[in-house]
């Protein structure tokens, strides 16, 4: 049996049957990694809105035989032994974008200003995107097969969910639909409040750090 390349491989997996496409994971990722910039273009996780009912969040999976690393002609990418997290040598990266094209999961992107590539690093083991997802559509998994089963299950659920909603509309049971929407909006609102508190805490920490430097 071939020995695993990394000690523990974990990555963020998305359940499309739960994902509403709200994009909160993108905002909290940008806030955490870029400090105070709530810009989804700075995010290491991307929400792909396939249809009105089917959304999926994509991020780095720390592949054991990573095509992004193999395709980099300048050897600007390597992986840590702990989990295979991508390490970028910004001095070597020339923003050619070959690694972006090579990734089958859309998990590596070019930074809009630095023009070097960035990818998920799991926030040190506790991904903020998982913590802040209002529908609990994101989770840490260790196996591609688990993620694949979740995707297949989501597609199956999509068919039954479409049928359920169609029946509710045909029966004019709009109260039930609105009640579900209100519950989702409530959960999203709670996470937005938590995100605002997180932003204020980061700002306070930065101010305190600046004061200590000036003292």
The main β sheet shows up as: 2 strands, antiparallel
Strands side by side in the biggest sheet: 1-8
The helix content is 40-55%
Give me the secondary-structure category.
alpha+beta
Radius of gyration: 20 Å
Beta strand %:
5-15%
What is the overall number of helices?
6
SSE string: EHEEHEEHEEHEHH
What's the overall average pLDDT, rounded? 86
Shape: globular
Name the poorly predicted regions: none
Number of strands: 8
Distance between the termini: 58 Å
Structure description:
With 215 residues, the protein is an alpha+beta fold. It contains 6 helices and 8 strands. It has a domain of 144 residues. The strands form 4 sheets. A two-stranded antiparallel ribbon has the order 1-8. It has a two-stranded antiparallel ribbon with strand order 2-3. The radius of gyration is 20 Å and the shape is globular. The mean pLDDT is 86.
Structure described in brief:
It contains six helices and eight strands. The chain has helices at residues 24-34, 67-71, 98-102, 128-132, 144-170, 174-214, and strands spanning 11-14, 46-49, 55-58, 77-79, 86-88, 108-110, 117-119, 138-141.
